[in-house]
Fold this protein.
Amino acid sequence: MTEMTDARGQALTFASPFQRIVSLVPSQTEFLIEIGAQVIGRTRFCIHPSERVAEIAIVGGTKDFSLEKIRALQPDLVIANLEENHETLLELEDQIPVWTSAVSDLPQALQMMRDLGALSGCQPQAHQIVTAIEKSFAKLLPQARRSCLYLIWRQPWMSVGTDSFLHDLLQRAGLDNLIQTTRYPQLSDQQIQALQPELILLSSEPYPFAAKHIAEIQQLCPQAEVRLVDGELFSWYGSRLLKSALYLQQL
């Protein structure tokens, strides 16, 4: 028997790897598929790898998933995340084991991947991906530090604080996050101007910032360099991290 404890401190005991997994976390769904785990259910936001997720049943969104659809798939494990998924998921636990993660930095992401490898019986594949990610980030050597504001939403403006995975990746890229307060604070135009960022990054998700928004934010901070960035490579804490270090180096 193997016993593992998730981010809630909930112990999960199992005799053999789980074979019918529903994953409610897009980045973890992608990782599970990449390592060869048997994923039978996903959210509509689980879009990678695109050629393979099309064959997997959709149970709703990350916060509006259907407990009935999950039960109907008869999974032997549900993968969730403390931040992304609604607590009503815990209503399943009397029938189906629920494994919950919490990821706020790169080491936690790597441990989460090791855990998923153990739960699914795909440890060698998970180890290979984790090792490759570790090596790629070890080569990430920023030449100079710059102050940065990372925006994830518009109307109202929203950014990311220190207790977030995004903050950790910004730091590793040599970018000093100007937001040192709450996890996802709302900002006024005046607050953004007062920060005087050297660099402003407009994320592709969850708000789909596009080229037309550059001029809008540039008016607020004419001194700043404004760039569109791939939000998945900043915030998907799974196998997509294989591409993140090189992307951050190019920034």
Remarks:
- Residues 123-138 form the longest helix (16 residues).
- The chain has two domains: 2-136, 146-250.
- The radius of gyration is 19 Å.
